[in-house]
Amino acid sequence: MSEYDFDLFIIGAGSGGVRAARIAASHGARVGICEESRVGGTCVIRGCVPKKLLVYASHFAEDFEDARGFGWETGEPRFSWPDLIRAKDREIDRLNRVYLGLLSGSGVELINGRGAFIDPHTVQIGERTVTAESILIATGGTPWVPEIPGIEHAITSNEAFDLAELPGRVAIVGGGFIACEFAGIFNGLGADVTQVYRGDAVLRGFDQDVRRVVSEELVKKGIDLKLESDIARIDKQESGLTLTFKDGETLDVDQVMYATGRVPLVRDLGLRDIGLEVRADGRVVVDDFSQTSIEHIYAVGDVTSRVNLTPVALYEGHSFADTVFGGKTRPVNHEYVPSAVFSQPPVGTVGYSEEEAITHIGPIDVYLSEFRPMKHTLSGRDEKTMMKLIVERESQKVVGIHIVGLDAPEIVQGFAVAVKSGLTKERFDCTIGIHPTAAEELVTMRSPARSHG
Ligand code: NDP
């Protein structure tokens, strides 16, 4: 019998922590986990899941309009924000219960409260102190906002899910995942949306055609996209807020939401006190096995800021538990991680962007197609689909796929298997398309739009 209370103790019961707990327990480890908020973490409670429910809700506005092109006559649709939030909360409660059931069903002990290191084998949670042979840090991340006058009047995505009412006028600051997704949500639900971004096209780091098309489509949907623009101060008024931009211009809104990035949640964890290596921005430094600078302490998910996506945290947590408790050595591989932005229309992407491929791959051919999706021939909606393949010339391997358009995330999830498997353009070409779909375009693009190198 070990001298410790647990073989493994986990700080944080989000996606990565819960997965690691269940897998380690299935390998016979005695596992404890603590959580200061609700089990499920950012993704389930205040991230991916409620976000996607809100995206569905907001898209109905267009669906009602589009239906007319197909012969439907609909009355004037009415929307209730409180009804939506109640329905969303019921679903989150259900998922929270599922997660609690997963932990108890695996024999994992859950302790409610915030954990902090007392020494490298000891964690304190409120009044309770536990010891463990191995410890996993899975505390995730938290929104970061710049310090400008009046920033206390701003909300982040954390609060956006629980607003008492839908703001009539809302400004969203940022051009990343969260900003683009929430601009679409609030716009679809009927708010006047201004998106404020300091760069020249949203989604920095994505392929240039993705950035161009998403920026164009956001504007077509009616979002006032202010590029190369930033807010200098926020002043509270009797009703609403006044935003003053750096160029002196002002804008009155009911809410301003900052989506200016997230940082690892390591505050008060005591990491530096126990001598654990942490970067200046809070990132816990780990190796390919998620091992930190202290041999028996590991970290997975957003707190390590490798690739901050739920499925990556799940994979890292699973690999860690298999390696340390299951006798299977599973390093984490972050190559060709597909991802999506649930903007409207959404983005699906895997592999190298055109710019990255020019730098890191060498000579490439770029296949590009932009078209009006079939649905919109009758709906009349001016929304396009963009599809793009990046092919390494010498090996003919497809090293990148980028799509903006209806169902892009669903399409890319399937095609990501081909890219991860290193399939060549010839394998794509000899695959028969499914007609009529948008995705068939990916197996029928014949001539490069441009070549580099
Ligand atoms: P991102 O890092 O994607 O975007 C942050 C945005 O804020 C950028 O546009 C950035 O501009 C801007 N910004 C940063 N600092 C400032 C500043 N001081 N003033 C003005 N603007 C600023 O972060 P998000 O908050 O959108 O999302 C966090 C992470 O969560 C993502 O990286 C992603 O990993 C994950 N996520 C994934 C989702 C998905 O998979 N669908 C959905 C939501 C989140 P610039 O580009 O110029 O740096």
Structure characterization notes:
This protein has 453 residues and is α/β, with parallel strands linked by helices. It has three domains: 6-143 and 263-325, FAD/NAD(P)-binding domain; 151-260, FAD/NAD(P)-binding domain, CATH 3.50.50; 339-452, FAD/NAD-linked reductase, C-terminal dimerisation domain (Enolase-like, domain 1, 2-Layer Sandwich), CATH 3.30.390.30. 30% of the residues lie in helices and 24% in strands. The protein is built from twelve helices and 22 strands. The strands form five sheets. Strands 1, 2, 3, 4, 5, 6 and 16 form a seven-stranded mixed β-sheet that branches. β17 and β18 form a beta hairpin. α1 (15-26) runs parallel beside α8 (310-325). The N and C termini lie far apart (63 Å).
Task: Throw out a few tags for this protein.
453 residues, FAD/NAD(P)-binding domain, 24% strand, 3 domains, 6-stranded antiparallel beta sheet, 22 strands, 7-stranded mixed beta sheet, Enolase-like, domain 1, binds NADPH dihydro-nicotinamide-adenine-dinucleotide phosphate, 12 helices, alpha/beta
